[in-house]
């Protein structure tokens, strides 16, 4: 399967200053000076760089390689059955106009997986989706799978609910130059930290989400070997592997804790913006 060239000029400078998610001319600034360029926000819709790259990949997959703005591609997605494992945010705001769109959050504190909260928010557990086989043409997950207790089970579940020809378009922070590593194991005795605990920001949970898996650049190979053909659809390089935090332990962990306490975690956790696509044969 063709993998797109790494870091083209238009990748870094985006679509002539237009946001791939909202389609508007905008400026794209870091959350704070020095913070990860993967998290720069669109001044119009607040989409992060990684979300804008997901928007561009969705536009190209649905409407053809020449289409780079999601609003231009929505008509081509009109009959797609779409599941997004997120029920808020700029991408959700665009996709939810599609007739076949559904979404969820993982909130087992207030609703059983497969059920809705009183406010009508659907709860889904990616390790045990309540949907039937082949239910969707598109599943979108953004920076979720690194937090799932059993990520391979979640990948298998997403594969199960994809229809033939369906795709899982997703992001995870990729630890370039490293192999995929498990930070936390869960067994009968409960949680066991293999590496010191690292958290990412989480719009739903105060204190952030625990990182269970550091995915390395072997991820597409690992999934493809599992029978789930996966490729890198977009790789926008801001940093060299040596400039990224990699697997965090030892002295690097002390630096992470210091940045976390100072509220500068997003300055420490620098990653390139990578969008993966898993494609089920038609
Ligand atoms: Zn925007």
Question: How would you explain this protein's 3D organization?
Answer:
The chain is α/β, with parallel strands linked by helices and about 280 residues long. It has helices at about 10-15, 50-65, 70-75, 90-95, 150-160, 220-225, 250-260, 265-270; strands at about 30, 40, 80-85, 100-105, 135-140, 160-170, 175, 180, 185, 190-195, 200, 210, 215, 230-235, 275-280. The strands form five sheets. It has a six-stranded mixed beta sheet, sandwiched between helices. Strands 7-13-8 form a three-stranded mixed beta sheet, with no helix packed on it. Strands 1-2 form a two-stranded antiparallel sheet. The chain has eight helices and 15 strands. The radius of gyration is 18 Å and the shape is globular. It has one domain (about 10-280): Rossmann fold, CATH 3.40.50. Helix content is about 25%, strand content about 20%. The structure holds zinc ion. The site of zinc ion has 9 residues, from loops. Zinc ion binds near residues 21, 24 and 44.
In a few lines, what is going on in this structure?
With 282 residues, the protein is α/β, with parallel strands linked by helices. It has helices spanning 9-13, 49-63, 70-73, 90-95, 151-161, 219-225, 250-261, 265-268, and strands at 28-29, 41-42, 82-84, 101-103, 136-142, 162-171, 174-175, 181-182, 184-187, 190-193, 199-200, 209-210, 213-216, 230-236, 273-279.
Number of domain modules: 1
Q: How big a fraction of the residues is strand?
A: 15-25%
Number of helices: 8
If you average the pLDDT, what whole number results? Answer: 91
> Uncertain spans, ≥5 residues at pLDDT below 50?
1-10
Task: Report the order of strands and helices.
Answer: HEEHHEHEEHEEEEEEEEHEHHE
Helical content stands at: 10-25%
- Which cofactor or ligand species appear? zinc ion
* Main structural class: alpha/beta
CATH topology: Rossmann fold
* CATH architecture type: 3-Layer(aba) Sandwich
What integer value in Å does the Rg equal?
18 Å
Number of strands: 15
Shape by Cα distribution? globular
Main sheet specs: 6 strands, mixed
Strands of the widest sheet, in order across it, are 4-3-5-6-15-14
The CATH class label is Alpha Beta
The end-to-end distance, rounded to whole angstroms, is 14 Å
């Amino acid at each position: 399967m063709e993998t797109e060239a790494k870091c083209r000029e238009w990748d870094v400078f985006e679509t002539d200053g237009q946001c791939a998610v909202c389609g508007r001319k905008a400026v794209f600034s870091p959350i704070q000076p020095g913070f990860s360029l993967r998290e720069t926000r669109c001044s119009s819709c607040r989409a992060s760089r990684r979300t804008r790259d997901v928007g561009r990949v969705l536009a190209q997959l649905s409407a053809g390689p020449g289409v780079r703005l999601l609003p231009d591609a929505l008509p081509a997605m009109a009959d797609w059955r779409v599941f997004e494992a997120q029920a808020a945010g700029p991408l959700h705001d665009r996709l939810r106009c599609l007739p076949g769109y559904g979404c969820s959050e993982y909130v087992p504190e207030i609703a059983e997986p497969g059920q809705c909260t009183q406010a009508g928010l659907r709860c889904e557990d990616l390790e045990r989706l309540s949907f039937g086989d082949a239910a969707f043409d598109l599943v979108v997950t953004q920076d979720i799978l690194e937090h799932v207790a059993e990520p391979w089970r979640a990948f298998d579940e997403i594969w199960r609910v994809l229809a033939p020809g369906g795709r899982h378009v997703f992001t995870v922070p990729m630890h370039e130059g490293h192999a995929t590593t498990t930070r936390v194991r869960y067994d009968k005795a409960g949680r066991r930290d293999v590496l010191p605990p690292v958290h990412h920001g989480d719009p739903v949970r105060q204190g952030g989400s625990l990182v269970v898996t550091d995915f390395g650049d072997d991820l597409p190979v690992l999934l493809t070997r599992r029978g789930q053909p996966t490729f890198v659809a977009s790789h926008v390089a801001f940093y060299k592997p040596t400039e990224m935090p990699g697997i965090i332990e030892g002295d690097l962990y002390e630096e992470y804790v210091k940045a976390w306490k100072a509220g500068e975690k997003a300055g420490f956790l620098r990653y390139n913006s990578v969008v993966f696509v898993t494609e089920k044969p038609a």
